[in-house]
Amino acid sequence: PSKGLAKRKKTIILLSMLAPGAIWLVLLRYLPMFGIVIAFQKFTIYTKDPTLLNNIKHSAWVGLKNFEFLFTTSDSLRMIRNTIGYNALWIVLGTVIAVAFAIMLSLITKKFVAKTYQTLMFFPYFLSWVVASYFLMAFLDPTNGLIPNLQKQLGVEVTQW
Q1: For the chain, does the N or the C end have fewer beta carbons within 10 angstroms?
Q2: Do strands 60-61 and 41-42 pair parallel, antiparallel, or not at all (unpaired)?
Q3: pLDDT tens for residues 54-66?
């Protein structure tokens, strides 16, 4: 009996470690795929209760007519060419710039300076835009912001950001 209990406890621990990743995968990767249905509908806003689910439910099904329209227009070849060109350019430039920065960082001899540059380069990826906007408001808010309050205390005309 104790061996089965230990195995069950180990299973629960392993499943609890798996749960955050599984929840993330379902919420951010699989759930949005239901919106793909919109490509096959004449999407209209359901005015009685305009939620996404009701809009999808009450929109007429047109099958591949949206794609037929897309590929029979005179600009379809240009749109496809531009999309592929922009993506290719984005991939090439992204790779070249990343490798160039990596080479430049490897050539910095002072470890403190290199680590500082690394931190400053990757910091925006770890900072939410919501947090950044709150910081901006904390500095520039006309009534309680740090900079306008400093301008008031110094007797300088307050800048209207």
Answers
A1: N
A2: antiparallel
A3: 898 999 999 999 9
CA angle 92, 33, 14 (to 5 degrees): 90
Rounded Cα–Cα distance for residues 84 and 33 (Å): 23
Residues 6+ away with beta carbon under 8 Å from 67: 39
| C-beta of residue 41 within 8 angstroms of C-beta of residue 55 | no
pLDDT digits (tens, 9 = 90+) for 83-94: 999 999 999 999
Name the maximum alpha-carbon separation found in the chain.
Answer: 78
Rounded Cα gap, residues 143 and 140, in angstroms = 9
CA–CA dist 140, 159 (Å, integer): 9
pTM of this structure: 0.48
100-143 per-position pLDDT tens digit? 989 998 999 999 998 998 888 888 888 888 888 898 999 999 88
Backbone angles phi, psi at 84, to 5 degrees: -65, -40
109: its two tokens: 């001899």
